[in-house]
Design brief:
It contains ten helices and eight strands. The protein has a five-stranded parallel β-sheet with strand order 2-6-1-7-8. Strands 3-4-5 form a three-stranded antiparallel β-sheet, covered by helices on one side. Helix 1 crosses helix 10. It binds cytidine-5'-diphosphate (2 copies). One cytidine-5'-diphosphate (CDP) binds next to helix 2, helix 4 and helix 9. Monomer. Keywords: Amino-acid biosynthesis, Aromatic amino acid biosynthesis, ATP-binding, Cytoplasm, Kinase, Nucleotide-binding, Transferase.
């Protein structure tokens, strides 16, 4: 669907990509792809099936056979709702392990591209602009300082009534940044044609407006109004 516009939002953990991408999608009436959820689902399926993090072929098979459904912000794996289960720390670490395997990434490509449906798509992850949708209309690299990101994750967990330690969160964020940026398959990096959006000092609304502004400034159909 090369005519369908894509807004690609990539960036590190807890930078706010998911929140910003969802709101931009709502504002434009576009579809939304949370690509990280797919890696999390493979990790959860691996934990359930007892497939090891270094078993590339086993993980690839799980990715190919993944039975997922997204609906109104909720996620199902087969018949089971796993919306909260895929957000656990164990699954978060597992996701960044399974994501290093090229065969797993390859197995998830078509599934991600299938989200590109009229009138448009907002996709967030690590390689939306670089690999999955290289022809995206708008590419944003969304970041914030590690300290701000740890603080945001902390607040998020507190609001859910979960316990957390800010120093541990900061360490986790730094470790995951390192693993995501240093891997050889689709590492997290700002591509040359992406614009940098540092949200350390921005509210969610300000970040959403900045993305919408870029989209309106890009040429093509569907840019009037909004
Ligand atoms: O919300 P957060 O940024 O912490 O994580 P996520 O976007 O749900 O992604 C979970 C993990 O999947 C990340 O640590 C990445 O290693 C991996 N991932 C990826 O490799 N490529 C993507 N397009 C999205 C996620
Ligand atoms: O998807 P990602 O892991 O990049 O981050 P997220 O889950 O969308 O955002 C992490 C937390 O930061 C959420 O609780 C957001 O509400 C919050 N946030 C914020 O406080 N200010 C921003 N400018 C963006 C996000």
């Amino acid at each position: 669907q090369p005519d369908v516009p894509v807004i690609a939002i990539d960036g590190p953990s807890a930078s706010g990509k998911g929140t910003v991408a969802q709101r931009v999608a709502e504002r434009l009436g576009f579809h939304y792809l949370d690509s990280g959820a797919l890696y999390r689902l493979v990790a959860l399926a691996a934990l359930r099936a007892g497939v090891a993090w270094d078993d590339e072929a086993g993980l690839e098979r799980l990715a190919q056979e993944l039975k997922v459904r997204f609906d109104a912000g909720r996620v199902w794996l087969g018949d089971e709702e796993v919306t909260d289960a895929i957000r656990s720390e164990e699954v978060s670490r597992g996701a960044s392990s399974v994501a290093q395997w090229p065969a797993v990434r390859e197995a998830l490509l078509d599934r991600q591209r299938a989200f590109r449906q009229p009138p448009g798509l907002v996709a967030d992850g690590r390689d939306m602009g670089s690999v999955v949708f290289p022809d995206a209309r708008v590419k944003i690299f969304l970041t914030a300082s590690p300290e701000v990101r740890a603080q945001r994750r902390y607040k998020q967990l507190m609001e859910k009534g979960m316990s957390a330690n800010i120093q541990t969160l900061l360490q986790d964020i730094r470790a995951r940044d390192a693993r995501d940026s240093q891997r050889s398959a689709a590492p997290l990096q700002k591509c040359a044609d992406a614009s940098l959006l540092d949200t350390s000092d921005l509210t969610i609304d300000q970040a959403v407006e900045a993305v919408l502004k870029q989209y309106r400034a890009s040429s093509g159909p569907g840019v009037a109004g909004g």
